[in-house]
Amino acid sequence: MLLDVRLPDRAGPELIPLLRAELPAMKIILFTAYPDDASLAAGADGVLVKDADRANLIDAISRVAAGERIVRTGADADRRMLLDRKLRDHGITRREYEILRHVAMGMTNPEIAVALGLARNTVKTYLQRALEKLGARNRVEALVRANQLGIL
User: What CATH number belongs to 2-89?
Assistant: First the structure.
């Protein structure tokens, strides 16, 4: 259920306990025009700002229906959701993405290890997995492919 935060006769969050009592399995997403309303999410499965684009709205509803809790507020959140969707579509994990971003900044594996607090071998493993998933033979090919896919 998309539940507006501001209803004519009461606040949407006040209805959550009543809805949960009647339909405990129902997924509830608070729908708000104000990003600061994210603090009202207690008891809800998610919070969405009304200016979210259609694709992000559908993605958020699908994710909540699958059991994930989300809080998406504003344009930055929309960009994160879009990136998360692209990463999922191409099988790239968030950590592999972080490694690719550091590679794109020209960092070596030892430098990435220090920056992310990881062992050098761990960085190497994540990078190798990213290369495989992108069908790349080396770092340069991986960056080109990731850029083509809109990941970087």
Answer: 3.40.50.2300
